[in-house]
Amino acid sequence: MSMVDTEKYSLPVRYGTDMRILIVGGGIAGLTLAGLLQQRGFRPTVAERIPEYGNVGYIIVLWPAGSRILKGLGVYEDLLEAGLPFSDYNVWDESGEMLQSYSVLPVTEKYGPMISIYRPELINVLRKAVDPEFIRMDTRVQNMEQTNDEVFVTFSDGSEETYDLVLGCDGVNSETRRQVFGEVQPTFGGMTGWNFWVKSGILEPTQIAEYWGTGKFLGIWPTKGRLSVFTSIRSPEGIPDPIDGRIDRINENFQGFNGIVPEILSHLDDPNEIYHSDYYDLQIDKWYKGRVGLIGDSAHAVLPTAGGGVSMAMESAAVMADELCRADSKYISHALEAHMTRRRSRVDKIQNQSRMMGKFAYANSKAVSSLRNLVLKLFSKKIHFNYWDSMLKEPI
Ligand SMILES: Cc1cc2nc3c(=O)[nH]c(=O)nc-3n(C[C@H](O)[C@H](O)[C@H](O)COP(=O)(O)OP(=O)(O)OC[C@H]3O[C@@H](n4cnc5c(N)ncnc54)[C@H](O)[C@@H]3O)c2cc1C
Predict the structure, then answer these.
(1) Residue to mutate, 31, 33, 45, 48, ligand 1, most ligand atoms under 8 Å from C-beta
(2) Statement to judge: residues 57 and 192 lie in one domain
(3) How far away, in angstroms, is 5 Cα from ligand 1 center?
(4) Shared domain check, 152 and 25
């Protein structure tokens, strides 16, 4: 694919709202971007591969950094309605001894609530900000060719369109990224995990409970009406995890964990309802080539260990919408470069923090996890506040 040489641009320049923009992927980043562009008068097309939005997903925690973008989109009330703010964070070791417990109120009073929400509910909230006419469901990009001036796209239904700009918001295994940059493997984080739901009642809905073992982690995160449980362990990449025996494997791994863990595990009954995945993140040097850019997990997936991936995807979408307001079809690469420059250091910081958190929470020798537990017990509340403050205070 060629880079854009603006000197050679030979078409009438399309300003702002006349620009032809294709967003590939109608997930968190894609819908946020489409909604913000629509507000500013653009008419983007969103190509989403699934035939209809459904119920697949787990809980996510939206930091105030992400949720405040929903205020600008006019759907913040819907978020508060569908999600659940939490107020307390508690960590035990596997024996059930408390390592730390603190209120997040000093943080949320300064920046806004931390909200847990079922991913499909967040998608529904974001969809309210996007004209359904802009979204082409059951649609992928079959082929993409770019010149200095335009991008020619063939969709999976055989139709063809021409765009000034294509933005890949198609997640960590992005097809757009592959089409533009070739094969780029996400980085395996050394962990594999199982997520499942448990009925509420075992835990106060405002409390987060985590159990940190040696190379093992079990977190219980309430959302509306139920609890989301993350169980994960240090593991080599790609170990097969057939549905058959899945419950036994989880029970084996967390055998000996105390506190409310045995009660949580006793609710495991349908292995088909347990979602399994290895954990990856992605760091690449450049987030665009010519007239094709990447946003969200396709450019900068974050390990789930610090819970910032969704907020990062939404922030990047917001910055891209902002840059596109000042762009035109001739100088599109300038907007893509400016987006990357504005986002890079913040994204790097959150990715690195998530990697560090992975090493800390999943310390995989008894000696290191014992030392970690001691450090956690001695941590002052001020250190927790500073940790959150450093992630939330900076501009996006
Ligand atoms: C176990 C786990 C727990 C997590 N927990 C948290 C958390 O607590 N808090 C948090 O902030 N983040 C969390 N994350 C991260 C979060 O889920 C992602 O960072 C976030 O969803 C990224 O948004 P996105 O729009 O870039 O990608 P996605 O939300 O993955 O959206 C991609 C969209 O593109 C579509 N698509 C894919 N391929 C194509 C194609 N070829 N053509 C058209 N459409 C396509 C998909 O169907 C989807 O709709 C977690 C991740 C994992 C794995």
Answers:
(1) 48
(2) no
(3) 33
(4) yes
* Residue 149 CB less than 6 A away from ligand 1: no
Note the pLDDT of residue 335: 96
Q: Which of 315, 387, 385, 356 is nearest to 110 (CA)?
A: 385
pLDDT at 1: 45
Question: What is the model's pTM?
Answer: 0.94
Report which of 267, 119, 141 is spatially closest to residue 201, judged by C-alpha positions.
267
CA distance 315 to 210: 27
- Tell me, yes or no, whether 318 and 368 share the same domain: no
Q: 388: pLDDT confidence band, cut at 50, 70 and 90? A: confident
Specify the higher pLDDT residue, 4 or 156. Answer: 156
User: Which residue segment(s) compose the domain that 147 sits in?
Assistant: 15-83+118-186+281-361
| Domain shared by 147 and 234, yes or no | no
Q: What is the CATH number of the domain that holds 315?
A: 3.50.50.60
Number of domains in the chain: 2
Task: Answer whether 28 contacts ligand 1 (Cβ < 6 A).
Answer: yes
* Best CA proximity match to 43, nearest among 20, 12, 24, 13: 20
Of 350, 336, 343, 291, nearest in space to 164 by CA: 291
pLDDT value at position 5?
57
225/289 same-domain check: no
> pLDDT averaged over the chain?
93
Q: Is residue 94 part of a domain?
A: no
Give me ligand 1 centre to Cα 55, in Å: 14
**Ligand 1: which residue has its CA nearest to atom 12?**
309
Residue 293: name the closest of 179, 123, 135 by CA.
179
Number of other residues whose CB lies within 10 A of the CB of residue 214:
19
Assess whether the C-beta atom of 24 lies below 6 angstroms from ligand 1. Answer: yes
265 and 315 assigned to the same domain? no
| pLDDT tens readout for residues 229-284 | 999 999 999 999 999 999 999 999 999 999 999 999 999 999 999 999 999 999 99
**Residue 105 domain-assigned?**
no
322-346 pLDDT per residue, tens = 999 999 999 999 999 999 999 999 9
